[in-house]
Amino acid sequence: MTDRFSRTRLLFEDDFEKLQSKKVLLLGVGGVGGFCLDSLYRTGIGSITIVDFDTFEVTNQNRQLGSEAVGAIKIDRMKELYPGIEGYDLKITPQWVETFDFEPFDLVIDAIDDMPAKVAIAQKVSSKLISSMGGAKKLDPTKIEITHIWKTHGDAFARKFRNELKKIGFKKKFDVVFSPEEANCKGLGSFVGVTGSFGLSLSALAISKLLNNKI
Questions:
Q1: What is the helix, strand, coil percentage profile of the chain, to 5?
Q2: Residues 6+ apart with CB under 8 A from 136
Q3: Where residue 153 sits, what CATH number does that domain have?
Q4: Cα–Cα distance between 4 and 6 in angstroms, integer?
Q5: 87 is a domain residue
Q6: What is the DSSP letter of 68?
Q7: What does the alpha-carbon distance between residue 215 and residue 205 come to, in Å, rounded to a whole number?
Q8: How far apart are CA 203 and CA 116, in angstroms?
Q9: What is the pTM of this model?
Q10: 32 close to 58: Cβ distance less than 8 angstroms
Q11: How many whole angstroms separate alpha carbon 63 and alpha carbon 190?
Q12: 22-38: pLDDT as tens digits
């Protein structure tokens, strides 16, 4: 069979059908989440649902897929670029997390930077969660690592996340993508070579977990 997944099938063989049967929820489609979405979609994940709240602005163009459409609603733009995905244009808050039904999804990917919401997500769905830490201010994608949240180091965002989880007595484990590279600027400067690599690393981790039933 020759179609857009022909070369994916060559690599994954019989596992490709397993990927097509999976349902993934991706929270956040910015500099990290957008690249994660692109990879999941191109690999053939059968059902992808995205959640985000924002419109594209010109400063997004250094790192966010779809951001050439300045002023467009992110969710609407992503649904144009990736036909067949589902999307919710709303702000992810602890209140939304509490009421949303995560049960239908095989895997939840957290690519947002709102700390209270991240903590709520971990509390609700840690058993099928992978999460992104801070990709801003960094220049070297080769320093990216994957481990569980309690083994992260050298990442200020991850440290804050750990501290917030400790405050509520959270002790479970879930895998994260992080980088111990020191900050290279004071503001929220960003380099697509790193933020995009965070997203692709999330996607690779997701596919590994979905195929090996490590969720």
A1: 45, 15, 40
A2: 188, 189, 190, 195
A3: 3.40.50.720
A4: 6
A5: yes
A6: T
A7: 11
A8: 24
A9: 0.96
A10: no
A11: 7
A12: 999 999 999 999 999 99
Is the residue at 71 inside a domain? Answer: yes
**CA–CA distance from 72 to each of 19, 77, 87 (Å)?**
30, 6, 14
Cα–Cα separations (whole angstroms), residue 210 to 31, 48, 100, 112, 188 = 23, 13, 22, 21, 33
- What whole-number distance in Å separates Cα of residue 202 and Cα of residue 191? 17
Position 1 in a domain: no
Per-residue pLDDT of 127-181, as tens digits, reads 999 999 999 999 999 999 999 999 999 999 999 999 999 999 999 999 999 999 9
Q: Compute the residue count for the chain.
A: 215
Number of domains in the chain: 1
In angstroms, rounded to a whole number, what is the distance separating the alpha carbons of residues 113 and 111? 7
- Report yes or no on 48 lying in a domain: yes
Place of tokens 């990709």: 135
Determine the structural domain holding residue 145 and report its residue range.
6-212
